[in-house]
Structures are given as structure tokens and as C-alpha cells.
Write a structure and sequence with these properties.
The complex is a heterodimer of chains A (about 260) and B (about 260). The relative contact order of chain A is 0.14. Helices cover about 80% and strands about 0% of the residues of chain A. Chain A has helices spanning about 5-20, 25-45, 60-90, 90-95, 105-130, 140-170, 170-185, 200-210, 210-225, 230-260. Chain A is an all-alpha fold. With about 260 residues, chain B is mostly helical. Chain B is elongated, with a radius of gyration of 19 Å. The relative contact order of chain B is 0.15. Chain B has 10 helices and no strands. The chains are: A mainly alpha (about 260), B mainly alpha (about 260). The interface of A and B includes residues 41, 43, 46, 189 and 198 of A.
């Protein structure tokens, strides 16, 4: 099959995936609203935490802005998984398997919906951050890097949703993993920098939790500017997650298509 | 009609829902898991906040967070019972129940029995985890009685609010309409720090939020230093009474549709 045919297939499925995601307010609105609501409540409720010695900024809003990006990405998992499980449940995937469509086109097409939602989220959260005075210490270039890192995180979590959907073919199973992903966010350096976490076991979990480094990558660009180590760790964790989950999703898709 | 009819309907509905609850992990997990997440994340991750100037809760941060998580678990026990009501309407069970029950008020009472059981189970699990994590319950037996009574009133209010919605809309899609207002009431209160340390719009919202009173009273009981007890009970009982009227209206609406 020629490269142009593959591009055409990817384009058509990507268009379907993007339109389908954006057409469902129940998917887009909570994915934007809940992270912003949590950001707003957190930043008012925990502003006094900035008085702790060693807290990196005097604005908790600036510190908490990164949470919105990762929390938004968690919604990508739900969105991608729900859409794909619906394709399995309705038999759309079965029908596609009878066509000469390439698996890679199907996967890339589906992922386009995740990335579209991720892009809308990242731009919205950045705009809200700037409007409410968070400022981006790394400047315009830093904002672009935040969008890139945020998309990579969305891709990683989105692939988890897609993987569960392909393995189980059930929307309920996809919804069932949401609390576990939420736990990953909660057991990270979400609320305080790791060096200020007092409880030993929690700090150890946060140290091992890749979500901490994703948060810290974004946070570094917002608060301190260009921090090579934080960015490298953030991109490594997000990229690693995306790579592993993409491989798992590809394998699950192969199994699913063979089964059908 | 006899009072026996009311009680037998209530116990039949309550028994069925309690049985469904304890035999279906999908129903147990969300109500327990979310408060546990909050407890571990805040008591573990935010314990340093007790060093912030102005934080003056003597039993410590774990106990401070427990005061919130206790009310949250109780409220979730109520709201998730509202989900069960909606599911019963979707499956057609409630329609048959409305036709069969001799005293329909007993249906709400039955769901309330289930809500209380759920809340007690959630609270028991969370209390065990909190005690393992070093919770210091400084209050005496009377304080604890006050604390858990407060939690049960919150549970009843949430359940009655949820049932009013579920019986009016009669679909699982009404879930967010039950959950979101309760979430907002719970979180627009002094969750992580005392009221005086809140800033911005959340401080303003907490001023008029009845959950602030409940939290202050609950944390007072935990510390063995009861505070704002009468206003808290008066406001919560008032809300519960209004919720009874709301749930009754829901039942009337369901009866008309049956």
C-alpha cells in the first residue's frame, strides 16, 4: 500500500475521531471544567502553604497550574477509551477489519482525537494561567514546550484508555480505571514539592511516581524558567509512558483485529 | 393504613439495597475509594501544612483531614444511594415497587436504611485506615457520639437530596446532578486548612456554606473541644428537613409517572 493511501486513511479516521470527540460536550466540558475548578479551589484553599520555608513561589495558583494539565490528560484516557470501546461494542471495528485499512492508520486516526482534546485543554489552561496572573517564567518558547509536554502526557494516558478498551471492549472497564489514574495523580508531588512532603512513605511513593516528574517538568517552566533536569525527567517519563502504552495498544489492536 | 406497612416496606427495600451493595464490588469501591484517596493524599502529602503560621488544630493534620473525609464518606454513602434509586427506575424495578408498596413513604425510608448502612461501612473502613495512619481522636465518648451523629445527618441530607433528583429524573444520567452540588458544597469549605487561612472566593463561599459549620463542629468533637455545636446541628437538621420535603416531592413525581 502506498504512503499516500496510508496518509489518506489516517486523515479520514483522524477527522472522524476529532469530530466525534469535539461533538460530545459531555466529553469536552468536564475535561476542561473539572481541572479548572480544582485549580481554583486548590489555589484558594492552599495559598497559605506558600508560607512554608522552601516553597518555590509565593503564588499557589502558579504552583497548582501544572496539575490542570495532568488532570486534563487523565480525561484523555477516559475519552479515548470510551470512544474506542464504543467502536468495539457497536461493531464498527469489526466492519473496519473487513476493509483493506491498515492497523497503523486506525491507531493513528484514533489518537488524533486524544491529541485534539489535549491541545484544546493545554491552550485553555495556559490562557487561564496567564489571564489570572500565573505568568510563564520560561516565556513564549516555554509555553510552547508546555503544550508539547502536555500533548505527550495526554498521548500516554490516552493510550492507556485505548488499551483497556481494546482488551476488554467495555466502556465500563474504561471508566473503572479512572479512579486508579486519579490515585496516580494524588500520590504525587501534586499538592506540595517533594522536598516539603513530610510523611516518609508518601514521599517515597511520590519519588517513584512518574506523574511527579511530569508535573515538575511543567511546573519548572511556569515557576523557574528553563530547568534542564526537570524537563528531561518530565519528557522522559511522559515519553516513556507514551511509548510503552502505544506499544501495548498496538499489540491489543492486533489481537482485537485478529479476533474479529 | 397501618404503621406496620410503612416499616415492612422500609425494611424490605432497605434489606434488598444493603444486599445489593455488599454483593456488588462496583457499588462498594467508589464510595470507599474516593474518600480514601483524599485521606491518603492529604493526610500524607499535605501534613507539612500544619507548620503554616495560623494552623492551630492541636490533634494534628491527620485528624484535621479525617474531619473532612468522615463527612465526605457519609455524604457519598447518601449520594450513591441516589444512584441506586435511579438505577432501580431505569430497570423498571421502582415502577413495580410503587405499585406493590402499601405505604410508599416506606420506600424512601428503606433507601435511607441502605444509605446509613453504606455510610457506616465507609466510615468504619476510613476510621480504621486513619487510626493506622496515626489519627489522634482526642474527644471523649460523648464527643465521638456527636461527631458520628453529625456524619449521619449529612448522610441523610445527601441521600434525601439525591433521591429527590433520582425520583424526578428517573435515569442514571442524573448522576452528575446529584454528585456535583454535593461535591461543590464539600469542597467550598475549609477542607485543607482552617477557615481563617482560606483566601479569595473560596473564603467567601466557605462563609455561607453550611458544611463549614459541620466541619468546625466535627473537628471540635475530634479535638475534644466542642465548638459551634448548636448552630451546626440546627443548620444541618434544617437542611435535612428541607431534603425530606424535596424527596417527598420526588416521590409524588414518580407516583404520577408510574
Amino acid at each position: 500500500m502506498s504512503r499516500s493511501t496510508l496518509a489518506l486513511q489516517v486523515g479520514m479516521l483522524a477527522r472522524r475521531s476529532v469530530i466525534r470527540t469535539l461533538r460530545q460536550p459531555a466529553m469536552v466540558v468536564p475535561a476542561l471544567l473539572f481541572p479548572l475548578l480544582l485549580l481554583s479551589i486548590n489555589s484558594s484553599g492552599l495559598d497559605s502553604a506558600t508560607n512554608l520555608p522552601g516553597f518555590p513561589t509565593d503564588s499557589y495558583f502558579q504552583f497548582a497550574l501544572a496539575i490542570a494539565f495532568v488532570q486534563g490528560a487523565l480525561f484523555s484516557a477516559s475519552s479515548a477509551g470510551t470512544n474506542l470501546s464504543s467502536d468495539v461494542e457497536t461493531g464498527f471495528l469489526n466492519r473496519l477489519s473487513l476493509t483493506p485499512l491498515r492497523r497503523v492508520a486506525l491507531l493513528l486516526g484514533q489518537l488524533a482525537g486524544i491529541l485534539a482534546l489535549g491541545l484544546i485543554q493545554a491552550v485553555t489552561f495556559l490562557a487561564v494561567g496567564v489571564v489570572f496572573g500565573a505568568g510563564i517564567a520560561a516565556g513564549v518558547a516555554g509555553a510552547l514546550v508546555i503544550v508539547a509536554l502536555s500533548l505527550l502526557i495526554s498521548l500516554g494516558f490516552g493510550c492507556i484508555g485505548a488499551f483497556i478498551a481494546l482488551r476488554t471492549g467495555s466502556g465500563e472497564a474504561v471508566q473503572g480505571i479512572f479512579p486508579l489514574l486519579f490515585a496516580a495523580l494524588f500520590l504525587s508531588s501534586m499538592a506540595l514539592p517533594r522536598n516539603l512532603i513530610e510523611t516518609d512513605w508518601f514521599r517515597t511513593v511520590a519519588d517513584w511516581n512518574p506523574v511527579s516528574y511530569m508535573l515538575e517538568g511543567i511546573r519548572s517552566l511556569v515557576i523557574t524558567g528553563w530547568d534542564g533536569e526537570a524537563l528531561a525527567l518530565g519528557f522522559a517519563c511522559a515519553g516513556g509512558l507514551a511509548l510503552i502504552t502505544l506499544a501495548a495498544t498496538t499489540s491489543a489492536l492486533r489481537t482485537r483485529m485478529t479476533r474479529t | 393504613m397501618s404503621r406496620g406497612g410503612f416499616i415492612s416496606v422500609a425494611f424490605a427495600v432497605g434489606r434488598r439495597n444493603v444486599h445489593n451493595y455488599f454483593t456488588n464490588p462496583a457499588m462498594i469501591i467508589p464510595g470507599v475509594l474516593f474518600p480514601l484517596f483524599f485521606f491518603t493524599a492529604f493526610a500524607g502529602g499535605l501534613s507539612r501544612v500544619e507548620s503554616v503560621p495560623g494552623f492551630d488544630f492541636a490533634p494534628g493534620y491527620t485528624a484535621f483531614v479525617y474531619g473532612f473525609v468522615l463527612l465526605q464518606a457519609s455524604a457519598f454513602g447518601g449520594i450513591f444511594t441516589g444512584f441506586s434509586i435511579a438505577r432501580d427506575f431505569e430497570s423498571g424495578f421502582s415502577r413495580r415497587l410503587l405499585l406493590a408498596a402499601s405505604r410508599r413513604g416506606g420506600i424512601i425510608a428503606g433507601y435511607w436504611i441502605a444509605a446509613v448502612t453504606r455510610a457506616m461501612f465507609n466510615v468504619l473502613l476510613i476510621t480504621v485506615v486513619a487510626l493506622i495512619a496515626g489519627l489522634d481522636l482526642a474527644g471523649g465518648p460523648l464527643d465521638l457520639l456527636g461527631l458520628y451523629t453529625l456524619a449521619l445527618i449529612v448522610n441523610a441530607g445527601a441521600m434525601l437530596f439525591g433521591s429527590g433528583i433520582a425520583m424526578r429524573l428517573r435515569t442514571m444520567q442524573a448522576g452528575p446532578a446529584m454528585q456535583v452540588p454535593v461535591f461543590l458544597f464539600l469542597f467550598l469549605a475549609p477542607v485543607w486548612v482552617p477557615y481563617d487561612l482560606l483566601v479569595g472566593w473560596v473564603h467567601t463561599a466557605a462563609t455561607v456554606n453550611p458544611i463549614t459549620l459541620a466541619l468546625d463542629a466535627g473537628r471540635g468533637f475530634i479535638a475534644g473541644d466542642p465548638t459551634k455545636v448548636l448552630p451546626a446541628f440546627a443548620v444541618l437538621l434544617g437542611i435535612a428537613a428541607l431534603s425530606v420535603l424535596w424527596a417527598r416531592g420526588g416521590l409524588r413525581s414518580a407516583e404520577r409517572a408510574a
